[in-house]
Every structure is written in structure tokens, then in C-alpha cells.
Amino acid sequence: MNTDTTRTRLERCFALTFPRLDPSQYATASAETMADWDSVAQVTLLTVIGEEFGIEVDFEEFEGATSFEELANRVAAHVR
Question: I want to staple 37 with a disulfide (CB 3.0 to 4.6 A). Which of 31, 32, 69, 75 is the partner?
């Protein structure tokens, strides 16, 4: 799967998890910059990602993935 497709699908996951976030902010979104991105949102986001990409999300493996870019990198490693 190419990187653009992965990023587009990941943007859909962000739209579902953070409906108030402006789409132009997805690429720079992180737990450090978003008050809405708490532990519950992290679990929700990872669940949505698992469903969108049809992958088993190991929550421990994705624990430190608290930005769009880091999530994109980790998801890409699973969908190749």
C-alpha cells in the first residue's frame, strides 16, 4: 500500500476520533498539542485504526505513538 493511501485512510481515522479537529491539522496532530487526545481517545483511535486497516493493533506496541506521523509510520509497517 502506498504512503498516500495509508495517510488518507489514517486521516479518516482521525476524523472519526476527533470530529472537531480541522482536517488541515491532522498531519501535525499529537497528544502534546491536543487537549482532546487523552488515554480514552488513544484507545478509541487505535481501535478505529485497527478496523480501518484490518490489522491487529497491539496497544503496547503503539503506546508511544501519540502523533499522526508516528502512527502513520507504525501503521505503514503493518500494511506493507
Answer: 31
Range of the domain at 51: 3-79
In this structure, what CATH number is given to the domain that contains residue 19?
Answer: 1.10.1200.10
Question: Which bin fits 11, alpha (ψ -120 to 50), beta or left (φ > 0)?
Answer: alpha
The residues, ordered by sequence, that sit 6+ positions from 25 with a Cβ below 8 Å of its Cβ are none
Q: What is the pLDDT of residues 10-28, one digit of tens each?
A: 999 999 999 999 999 999 9
When divided into structural domains, the chain yields a total of 1
